[in-house]
Design brief:
Blueprint (H helix, E strand, L loop, with lengths): L1 H33 L11 E4 L12 E4 L7 E2 L4 H13 L3 E7 L7 H15 L4 E9 L1 H7 L4 E10 L12 H7 L2 E7 L16 H26 L3 H9 L6 H6 L5 E2 L2 H11 L9 E4 H11 L8 E8 L1 E3 L7 E3 H13 L3 E10 L1 E3 H15 L4 E10 L1 H6 L4 E4 L4 E3 L3 E7 L1 H6 L24 H26 L3 H7 L4 E3 H7 L4 E2 L2 H11 L6 E5 L1 E4 L1 H7 L6 H9 L1 H15 L4 E3 L8
Parallel strand pairs: 1-4, 1-9, 2-22, 4-5, 5-6, 6-8, 10-13, 10-21, 11-12, 13-15, 15-16, 15-17, 16-20
Antiparallel strand pairs: 2-3, 7-18, 14-23, 17-19
Helix pairs in contact: 2-3, 2-10, 3-4, 11-12, 15-16, 20-21
């Protein structure tokens, strides 16, 4: 026994020693780094590489470590950091142009449109924008279509065929496995739960999907039409007949300019900046340049500020983090912005498909308190649907991109039921109760008619509250709201016609209106929220301690872990949900 104790104490001592050594190195690195010059240098005659193959969020994020403030992080890889960097590059004498090189963009359509807008503005400086791809997805091409010259590899491909999405249905699967979902919903278009009720798409759901896909496709074609000088009708013909399915056809259809190899593309950029072909082209990545630009943008300090509060991800009941919108974090951010005398107005940037009804109501209440004190303007990103629209509805003004997915004013409740599955496996659950409704829900029993009635009553109550909030915030009658509600999904362009948003545009337009409302000529921006991390999380991030999720991923494999994560996500959706109809992947 004493031998084992000695071994354990030795192992523990080594572990603690390694942690202390690691922390000392981090401290030393922070001290040395703080006195150094810029981490990123931009050489003369450089080309900025816009390769965005990392996940693009609206907000890079600010992270604070209370115990170790020297580890605080402020990422500059968010959408608007990248847009600011592109703006800075337009006036940076060291940057001669932008190269969109094998991009494989990992962003939503509205984010891609915003980046497109920044590149169009950059071109006004007279500097070049060129694009090269071994293969272009439709979203890659949508961004690259702003380029002065578009190259494709001779053996490459370009995807231009229109938009599509696919939905799986599980009714028969549930019956065969014995695992089913108990569904209660309100709103004929609230199709988040439809796959568990039917084997095929309903007419109502098909109507709304076709409507918003056509609206998105029209917006994409309009932008490409202007950049490539091709009519929108001709673009539709190209898509219908797949007239860009190989490089030669893409060139003859005027979607691209040159069929060439990558080395020829590099040499063309060298020629454009007057560099000998045998010399190295100076290239800097967007991730590095974003960090550089953030320190060199030269913005003046202003006492007057506009707060930009980002609500990005599913809305959950709780604190929230970098990937979710919790009422805890949102309440703190709104309260600080509301009580800070230097902050004169607030822009709420929403990129959320919705989530918890309770959390949405709590955030709504905090916005209601805030708008009595200061102007609140909403800017919508890829999504501001269901709960995302709930929290937007009572702002002073709502700005959406034409490609924003919004609306989805509907409610559903979903409970997993394993009664038949348990019976198939030889499991029987028995309950003992003192009162008739003591057992409101069991995974092992189907909902009774009385239980379903009570849940339906709760869902209807939330729907009534939701539509009341929208009617009040948007100054519409209940009848008007009912016509555009029922869970129906709209694009920003359609939502403008329905009175759900006030104007089409991006964050810059929302900031303009916020400044006007606060009567500001000049201002600086302060971003929220700030996410706090503890020591355990810090050690996990640096790989010293493995989290249970990491262990599960290693044991189960990536694909099985994703399935487990999805099941866990469903189980964490407590209470009634205001959520976008489904997880979509528009292709």
């Amino acid at each position: 026994m004493s031998f084992i104790q000695r071994v354990l104490s030795t192992v523990t001592g080594i572990f603690v020693f390694l942690i202390i050594c690691f922390l000392c190195l981090v401290v030393l690195g922070a001290i040395l780094g703080s006195g150094s010059d810029d981490l990123v240098k931009v050489k003369s005659n450089s080309v900025l590489e816009l390769t965005l193959d990392f996940p693009i969020k609206d907000y890079g994020g600010k992270i604070e470590f209370k115990e170790y403030p020297f580890l605080n992080e402020s990422s500059k890889k968010g959408l608007f950091n990248i847009i600011d960097a592109i703006d800075h590059a337009a006036t940076d004498p060291n940057i001669k142009g932008i190269s969109i090189d094998n991009n494989f963009i990992n962003a939503g359509i509205s984010q891609t449109k915003a980046l497109r807008g920044a590149l169009l503005k950059f071109k006004e400086s007279g500097k070049f924008v060129v694009a090269y791809g071994d293969m272009y997805s439709q979203k890659d091409y949508y961004l690259s279509s702003v380029a002065d010259t578009i190259y494709v590899n001779p053996a490459g491909m370009l995807e231009f065929k229109g938009l599509s999405t696919e939905q799986l249905y599980f009714k028969d699967f549930q019956e065969k496995t014995g695992f089913k979902m108990e569904i209660v919903r309100h709103g004929k278009y609230k199709s988040a739960v439809e796959p568990f009720l039917e084997n095929e798409m309903s007419d109502n759901n098909r109507v709304q999907i076709e409507a918003y896909l056509k609206s998105l496709w029209l917006e994409i074609r309009k932008d490409i039409s202007i950049s490539r000088n091709i009519s929108v009708e001709r673009l539709n013909t190209i898509a219908d007949s797949l007239l860009a399915r190989n490089p030669e056809l893409a060139k003859s259809s005027n979607l691209i300019d040159k069929v060439a190899y990558h080395d020829e593309y590099i040499n063309a950029m060298k020629f454009a900046i007057g560099l000998d072909s045998n010399k190295e082209l100076n290239r800097i990545s967007m991730a590095d340049y974003s960090e550089y630009a953030s320190r060199h943008m030269g913005g003046k300090y202003h006492k007057n500020k506009i707060a930009v509060i980002y609500a990005e991800g599913d809305i959950i009941y709780g604190e929230g983090d970098e990937n979710t919108v919790g009422q805890g974090t949102m309440e703190k951010s709104l309260k600080e912005a509301r009580t800070n005398s230097d902050i004169k107005a607030i822009v709420l940037r929403i990129n959320s498909p919705g989530g918890s009804a309770l959390a949405s109501e709590l955030i709504w209440r905090e916005i209601e308190l805030t708008k009595k004190v200061k102007p609140v303007i909403v800017s919508m990103g890829n999504y501001a649907a269901s709960g995302g629209y709930y929290i937007a509805s009572n702002a002073h003004k709502i700005i959406a991109e034409p490609t924003t997915i919004t609306g989805s004013i509907g409610v559903f409740g979903m409970l997993p039921n394993g009664k038949q599955l348990a019976e198939n496996m030889g499991i029987n659950a028995e309950q003992v109760i003192t009162n008739q409704n003591a057992l409101t829900y069991s995974f092992f029993e189907p909902l009774s008619s009385q239980q379903r009635k009570y849940i339906q009553e709760g869902v209807v109550n939330v729907y009534e509250l939701f539509t009341n909030r929208v009617a009040l915030g948007r100054k519409l009658t209940k009848a008007q709201v009912e016509e555009i509600a029922q869970g129906r999904v709209w694009t920003g362009a359609d939502a403008l016609n329905m009175g759900l948003v006030d104007e089409l545009g991006g964050l810059d337009l929302a900031l303009k209106y916020a400044a006007e409302a606060a009567k500001l000529q000049d201002f600086s921006i302060r971003e929220f929220p700030v996410f706090e991390k503890d020591l355990d999380k810090m050690l996990e991030d640096f790989g010293i301690v493995k989290a249970k999720e990491t262990i599960l991923k290693e044991e189960l494999g990536e694909e099985h872990y994703k399935i487990l994560k999805e099941i866990k996500s469903i189980s964490q959706k407590k209470g009634v949900q205001l959520l976008f109809p489904y997880s979509i992947n528009i292709k």
